[in-house]
Design brief:
heterodimer; A: 573 residues; alpha/beta; Aminopeptidase; 3 domains; 7-stranded mixed sheet; 5-stranded parallel sheet; globular; B: 80 residues; Non-ribosomal Peptide Synthetase Peptidyl Carrier Protein, Chain A; 3 helices; 54% helix; hydrolase activity, acting on ester bonds (chain A); HAD_sf (chain A)
Chain lengths: 573, 80
């Protein structure tokens, strides 16, 4: 990671071609350096953070005043940084007997701040939790005294987690975790604090900025979806082809323990929805043997969505994996113990994230944890099923090859789609798809769960969520459209996005048939669509043209009364 | 350490932190003479000097300097 003085050099660079995100930064201590660190870190991941910084200690003044600069600025993201040092100051002033209520009072204040922001802005709020300050007034006994500062601070951090878990647009940036990782001496420099009111040391700024940007990037749909694993000396110790099944290192003994613990971590990622792929220089049957037969293996074949083991070069193999999964290289992480392989792959596919694994496998996890590779802003039950869906996709690819005619293939799939408006059961998945879809996404408008909920209640919109299943299995909810009532005769297609898992199934035709029928049913004549280009959605550039819409000043128009249902092989469920 | 040697090292730190190769400090140089040497960057400079010389300044000390010469005297006293 760059140090602050290196990072600052970014500030002189040209931000004009980068995606702009408006960020408001409010703190109860001096935040000028944090401001610089955030903007400079944003540059390295292609964001132009347009940061408005509140004057020193103006959090309440800005948030509670409806006419403040904060609301005039209309940020996409509001970052609120209330420091532990100011929390101590507040605690110091409490009357005896009130000390035990600090956490409750502070949380109420934070809730007020959040609700006030949300009532006036559509922004996401990022809140730093509290770094621990142990004043040792009670020593270890503080853990038994509810009114101690340490007790109240930890309680507050826990209450913040509870609050965040029920408040979709309230995100916590885990400053406490950063301090635990590197130590308070590294995080906090007393002389800087006394002279400048800055509570973050210059050394820790890049870490804090990076962790904040992780959240901002994830909110904007930029996060990792897939982990590609090498096998020998990455997933287990030793070389399966040379050492044989009995002699690879995995299990409770010696260095085997490091690989077992690594595999448990990977398995948890998989259960969270990260897609696992294997890319190994090996004979396939030999490489699969441990997954099938070794009693100590944590990962099993059913955990791996795409398994590629051969003697071809890894660059081509990773391209194949990318092809099957149909996600961007920038959403994939490749772990390989061999620096030579890493360098070759890095040279050919620079977008791929390739951590420099330490030489000693004992250090793999401690190295990987703080990299925070797998930030996310959503989690739904569908996530856990993702691997099975990609395995099914691999089967479909094989079946497709046996049909010479695409129509026959599509017919043979017996596809069914359930079409429903947004409701409380599909809201988490709808929001998630809105965050994750980059390629098949006409306007790339991101909606959170809270947004989806309010859309579903609004009478200005018609909302549609589509599932798709076939004889191989269920893809789940894979497509969303949102129609906005624009005029008495026109519906505007605010959102049309689809998971790339179901490309080339005729889903577009099915969706358009559905939209047209609904428009007619409600007495509308025109559907209007728009394509907003991004770096990733070129695949749908001609979407409306291909579906028979006519262009008028950059807007695509379809008269539903002249529309004939398009051919498709999907039936309503 | 000689004053001259300290001055050269400090000069290098200024060039690096302020990202400006044209900086040439003398004992008489003040913040007004150097572009971008504002109160904010001053903090960054102080922290970088502390690290380079492996010293710590008192929180009041750094506010009493009027020019580079004072800064060098402080460094010299702590590294002697």
């Amino acid at each position: 990671m760059k140090v602050f003085s290196q990072l600052k050099k970014n500030l002189k660079k040209d931000f004009s071609n980068l995606k702009t995100i408006k960020v408001a930064l409010l703190g109860d201590t001096a935040t000028q350096f944090l401001n610089q660190a955030l903007r400079a870190t944003g540059y390295d991941i292609d964001y132009n953070l347009d940061i408005w910084e509140a004057d020193f200690n103006q959090v309440e003044g800005q948030v509670f005043d409806p006419t403040s600069e904060l609301y005039e600025f209309e940020p996409d993201v509001v970052i609120i940084f209330l420091s532990s040092h100011k929390l101590v100051a507040r605690y110091n002033k409490l009357k005896p007997g009130q000390s035990g209520t600090m956490a409750d009072m502070q949380l109420a204040q934070i809730q007020n701040l959040y609700e006030s922001v949300k009532s006036r802005l559509k922004a996401k709020v990022i809140f730093y939790n509290y770094q621990e300050i142990d004043d040792h007034v009670f020593g270890n006994f503080a853990n038994k005294i509810q009114s101690s500062f340490l007790y109240q601070l930890r309680k507050l951090n826990f209450m913040l987690m509870e609050y965040a878990s029920n408040t979709p647009d309230f995100y916590i940036c885990d400053l406490s975790s950063i301090q635990n990782q590197v130590g308070k001496q590294f995080c906090f420099q007393p002389s800087v604090y006394i002279n400048t009111e800055m509570v973050l040391s210059i050394d820790i700024l890049p870490e804090v900025a990076a962790k904040t940007l992780d959240i901002i990037a994830a909110i904007n749909g930029k996060f990792k979806k897939c982990l590609i694993l090498d096998l020998d000396n990455t997933t287990w110790g030793g070389i399966i082809g040379d050492d044989g099944l009995e002699n690879i290192q995995i299990g409770a003994l010696g260095i085997g323990k490091a690989f077992t613990e690594f595999q448990y971590w990977v398995k948890k990622l998989k259960n969270r929805g990260v897609i696992l792929a294997v890319c190994s220089k090996n004979t396939e049957s030999i490489a699969k043997e441990p997954f099938e037969k070794h009693p100590d293996m944590v990962l099993r074949l059913e955990d791996i969505a795409v398994f590629i083991a051969n003697w071809e070069n890894k660059v081509d193999n990773i391209r194949t994996i990318q092809n099957i999964l149909n996600i961007g290289f920038d959403s994939m992480v490749f772990l390989d113990d061999n620096p030579f392989e890493r360098n070759i792959v890095r040279d050919s596919i620079p977008e791929l994230t390739i951590p420099e694994l330490p030489e000693d496998p004992a250090e793999y996890l401690e190295y990987l944890y703080p990299l925070n590779l797998f930030e996310t802003v959503s989690f739904s039950e569908e996530d856990a099923k993702r691997t099975a869906q990609y395995q099914i996709e691999a089967q479909r690819v094989v079946t497709q090859q046996s049909f010479t005619n695409e129509k026959d293939f599509l017919k043979s799939l017996n596809m069914l789609s359930l079409v429903e408006p947004f409701n409380k059961f599909n809201t988490p998945r709808v929001a998630q798809l809105s965050q994750r879809s980059n390629q098949f996404n006409l306007r790339t408008i991101r909606y959170t769960e809270a947004d989806i909920e309010s859309l579903s209640k609004s009478s200005d919109y018609f909302t549609f969520a589509f599932t798709l299943e076939d004889r191989f299995g269920d893809n789940g909810l894979i497509c969303i459209t949102i129609l906005k009532k624009q005029t008495d005769d026109t519906l505007f297609i605010d959102t049309w996005l689809m998971s790339c898992r179901v490309l080339k199934r005729g889903m577009e035709n099915f969706v358009l048939n559905t939209l047209v029928n609904s428009a007619k049913e409600h007495g509308y004549t025109y559907l209007k669509g728009e394509y907003l280009p991004t770096a990733k959605n070129e695949m749908v550039k001609n979407h409306y043209k291909n579906l028979g819409f006519a262009e008028q000043d950059g807007i695509w128009i379809l008269n539903v009364n002249e529309y004939e249902n398009k051919e498709c092989y999907i039936s309503n469920k | 350490m000689e004053d001259k040697e300290i001055l050269e090292t400090v000069n290098g730190i200024f060039i690096d932190v302020l990202d400006n190769d044209d900086i040439a400090l003398t004992p008489e140089t003040t913040a007004n003479d150097v572009d971008d040497w504002d109160s904010l960057n001053h903090i960054q400079l102080v922290v970088a000097i502390e690290r380079k010389f492996k010293i710590r300044f008192g929180s009041q000390e750094i506010q009493n300097w009027s020019n580079i010469g004072d800064m060098i005297a402080s460094i010299k006293a702590k590294t002697a």
